[in-house]
Amino acid sequence: MKNLNYGIIGNCRSAALISDKGAIEWCCLPEFDSSSIFAKILDTQIGGSFEIHCTDDYLITQKYLENTSILVTTFDNGADAFEINDFMPRYRKENLSYKVPPEIIRYFRKIKGAPQFKVHYDPKLEYAVGITSNYVKEDHVLSLSESTKFDSLFLYSNFDLEAVKNAHNITLEEDGYILLAYNEKILKTTLTKINLEFERTKSYWLGWADKTTHYKKFNKEIIRSAITLKLLSYEKTGAVLAAATTSLPETIGEVRNWDYRFCWIRDASMVVKVVSELGHKKMAKNYLQFIVDLIPDKDEKLQIMYGINKEKKLTEETLDHLSGYMGSKPVRIGNAAYSQRQNDIYGILMDVIHQQLSTFSNDTENGEELWNITKGIVWVVEKHWQEPDKGIWEFRTEERHFTFSKVLCWTAIDRAVKVAKILGKKTQLAKWEPLAATIKQDIMDNAWNESVQAFTQSYGSPDLDASVLLMENYGFIDAKDPKFVATVQGIERDLSNDGLLYRYKNKDDFGLPSSSFTICTFWFINSLYKIGETKKAEKMFKKLLSYSNHLGLFSEDIDFETKRLLGNFPQAYSHLALIETAINLSNISDDDQVLEAIKN
């Protein structure tokens, strides 16, 4: 069974996916949303890859260098062994800025014997449109795109360049390297310099992980997920990507294939809130500056998503020449959802703004701009909260009065009230507090379905939806409220399937959902914990963790039957929810378990 057994490497400028066999099968340079140089993950025939081939007697294993983003793939046949340390350089320079070149370093280290391998180097620039030709030059291999758009790539190595280009046998007699660079190098590349890049990058990640708050339980999983979220952040602007890939299908053979290499306000705001809680406030500051830069005018409306360089138009196209992941077409670049209206984004963004102003009130840059944005958000919510929208799941046709959107409209005003209190803005308090109360009453009157005995997906609907579990998370309702407890129980009854959750089971624009949306299961486990079912929550959590890939990474979806990972990868949504759940469950004490056993 094919699974998403990939590791991610990156440097907060771009990223690459490397298979458990050591093959680079997805990478875009120079940035996350650039055209691909390797895309075998989307077309095994023409997508392009960078593989290391050994004879069948070599056992291949893979792990991350602990508390770093450096991926180590080991090849061992008993007598001969070597490892490849794959990374993209990232470290602080003397001027305190970060060095994040658009480069991949493959550092080959001899372990024992005389290991042999072949390099299968097959870049396909510009999403594999047209032909990419490779030429051996004096000190590098030059790859040129002969399509309608010019592009180039440079390979440097202390191995014989003809052997690299032509897949001849290479015997590893001493340590070696292959450096892939988007830009031609000016200074000579040497093994000493490569080792220095390795040590600097390792030191950076070890330092970053050390600054991450540590917990009693699940610390390993929290650190790996935190590093993954950091890898999905974009240094230049502060944007946070939903995932590193495009068009990995939610279900094999279907058309739910989207480009996730953009910054969704909802996803990114959730990410920076949890990463900030882990002690990394700089990431939150950078993201809030990204928001400030997006809204220079007071009447500027917030889109649900933007390009990582603040692009506001994300025209969707299909790459029909690519066959798609396991034949799942179409392959899309761009995302038409940017033009949708989703009212929930205001509440989630306000939640982050409130967190930053309350935690770092004396240390928050652009506080005045954030207050302006707060007032603007209240204005928009006040004008539009009663209108239907596309909802958190981005239905592409029908608009409805989604419960989650309404709850997040309430959250926007509730957090704005809290911000006004922090800043001593009494005039706004007098106006905003009644508005929050009005929205809350509207939700209580219309979202609760008496016959279903649960808060449902939308007003007047009998359908359940996992997103309503976040009502408690955002403080809308107490975990012990009978209506919330009944909703959790109803969602388990209707949406749970072998320990995994549907987002919803009602028909949408593309038919009936047929895979589990990973974040929803984390939400449900969190809700079990909140209502006091801690033992059940911890058992489900450990089971869900077992469905990650070999490196502890999650995609967007999980197949109900096979438990294979599906959807774009790695998914920020999934990992931020993993962290939140792990933090909650790490607080469970032995006394809690005893009390629950007595109660039951």
Sum this structure up briefly:
Helix content is 36%, strand content 18%.
Walkthrough of the structure:
The strands form 9 sheets. The chain has an 8-stranded antiparallel beta sheet with strand order 6-7-8-11-17-15-14-13. The chain is globular. It has 16 helices and 28 strands. The longest helix is centred in the last third of the chain and has 21 residues, at 403-423. It folds into 3 domains: 6-209, putative glycoside hydrolase family protein from bacillus halodurans (Beta-galactosidase, Chain A, domain 5, Distorted Sandwich), CATH 2.70.98.50; 232-241 and 265-304 and 341-446; 449-600, Alpha/alpha barrel (Glycosyltransferase). Helices cover 36% and strands 18% of the residues. A hairpin with a 7-residue loop joins strand 3 and strand 4 (36-38). The chain is α+β, with helices and mostly antiparallel strands.
Question: Any descriptors?
Answer:
600 residues, alpha+beta, Beta-galactosidase, Chain A, domain 5, Glycosyltransferase, eight-stranded antiparallel beta sheet, four-stranded antiparallel beta sheet, 16 helices, 28 strands, globular, 6hp_glycosidase-like_sf, hydrolase, Glycoside hydrolase
Structural class assignment: alpha+beta
What about the largest sheet?
Answer: 8 strands, antiparallel
Quaternary class: single chain
Shape: globular
Question: In CATH, what is the homologous superfamily of the largest domain?
Answer: putative glycoside hydrolase family protein from bacillus halodurans
Number of strands: 28
- Name the beta content range: 15-25%
Averaged pLDDT, please?
Answer: 93
Q: How many separate domains make up the residues?
A: 3
How many helices? The count is 16
The CATH topology of the largest domain is Beta-galactosidase, Chain A, domain 5
Pfam families: Glyco_hydro_15, TREH_N
Keywords: Hydrolase
Organism: Flavobacterium faecale
Domain Trehalase-like N-terminal: 8-133
